[in-house]
Amino acid sequence: MGSKIGVVSWDATTVTDGRFGLLSRVKPGGHRPAPGSKDQILDSYGVVASSLTFSKFTANERMNTSVAAPEEHTSGATKPVPSTPTTSDAGPKLPRVWKRWAIGIVSLVGLAVAGWLIVPTVETALNTVSTDDAYVNGHVTFVAPRVSGQVLRVLVDDNYRVKAGELLVELDPEPYQIQVNLKKAAVTAAEADRRAAEAEVRGLLAQLRSQRWKLQTAMEQVDNQVALLNARAAALRSKEATLERANADLARLKETFGKGASARQELDAGIEAAGVAEAQVKQAAQEVYEVRVTLGLPPRPASGSLTAVPADLNQTFSTVRQTVADFIHIAAQVGLPLNRSEATPTEVLEEFRSRDAARDVDRIFAALIPEAPAVKQADAKLMQARRDLDQAELNLRYCRVYAEIDGVVTRRNVNRGNNILAGQQVMAVRSLTEIWIDANYKETQIAPLKIGQRVDVYADTYGSRRTFRGRITGFTNGTGSTLALLPAQNATGNFVKVVQRLPVRIELEDYDPEVDTLYAGLSVTPYVYYKDQSAGPNAGRRLQDLARPGTPGENRP
């Protein structure tokens, strides 16, 4: 009688001269089934069933033997029976004893094997939560160029393994090289404009220096003219005194000449001296008037002395005011805000000197060069030209498309000569290391699960010969139905309750793609040891800590 249960093939019994034997127990692949799996449970049941069948068969055999014995004795009554027993009569008793021992030993062995298979299965079933709705998942990086152009080379194909930074696709760089050359020329022109603007500002600063000295000289000239006015006025008074003396002498000469006490010659000399003194007075007065006019004053004051001048004449004199205006105008061209039109020249110069703590005029002029509007404008144009050059060089580098992660190339859809656009997907790279398990547990299984619990994962690809160790790292905040493109509408009259499934993320801890490679989408069966102590980051919790700024993968437990 032969039977096949699950993946275990049995030849249950073979009866040969009253002997019963378990001939074969073969499992494809030559390995034990996973703990708690259907294969192991059916395997255990098969061993027990075969043991019971063996025991039942041997019992029936003994019963048939005992019933057949009297018939043999009855039929033997008509025949002569030897009075002395022979060795042939005593022979069959030894095999029956051997069979009883064999039955007991085989039964014990069968029970031991059944216990050895069933106990781990029962223990696993009592301490773990499992699901067969689980799959391998991993990061996928879609490769796309940052610039458009014609494909010059494609260096990889589907299923090629690549490293981060490895060249995948190269676009025709010639159009972008031309742009780089043009931008370099623009930078050269902008640098020349900047030097010209600086030279212009230096020329304006030279004029500003000149105007400063002109202003200082103008005020000093006013002071000199005032001093000259005082000197001319003093000379006028001296001439006037000389005229008075000459007139007095002439009066005495006339008096003595009338009395005959002086000669005619002396009188003529006195008349001549008085005339000369009068002419000198007039000349001195004209000189005083001239100085007053140069100072912007009336030749003859309405009242007061000829030397009377305003106290702030050196601040209000027209030449001084014009020089101040020119100084402020040039200062404005170099970016110096001296726009106080009501300020006096002294106040303007003081404000200019106060721009430096040490009142160093040369340092003030040197600091005005980079702050001049023309220089700033030239600097801005130069910076823009350089940024344009940087962008052109960046676009040139973007003609070479590199792998961003380690992985395997998939879904290549580009060939040499294709014209592609910026952002157009040309292939994808699947990571071999950044993978995890998405296990969709029923909502009735979620209660005992927490972050940090140990997980044993069995992949259908490798069967039970390879156990992957992992831990729970998080729970999706919503069932699969709520995250669907078209969520189910349960507010209808035909509602049927269906057990929902919640995706649970399991990170593998001992995964080495070089040894046993897992591919995205493979089916796995995870066993969560929910009675064990949780360990690792966020252990024993349902929610992870708040995300911290960083690159992708740094915040992963």
UniProtKB/TrEMBL annotation:
It comes from Fimbriiglobus ruber. Gene3D superfamilies: 2.40.30.170, 2.40.50.100, Helix hairpin bin. The lineage of its organism: Bacteria, Pseudomonadati, Planctomycetota, Planctomycetia, Gemmatales. Residues 182-256 form a coiled coil. Residues 65-91, 535-557 are annotated as: Disordered. Keywords: Coiled coil, Membrane, Transmembrane, Transmembrane helix. It is found in: Membrane. This is Membrane fusion component of tripartite multidrug resistance system. Its main location: membrane. GO terms for cellular component: membrane. It comes from the Bacteria. One of its GO terms (biological process) is transmembrane transport. Residues 143-429 form the Multidrug resistance protein MdtA-like barrel-sandwich hybrid domain. It is a single-pass membrane protein. Pfam families: BSH_RND.
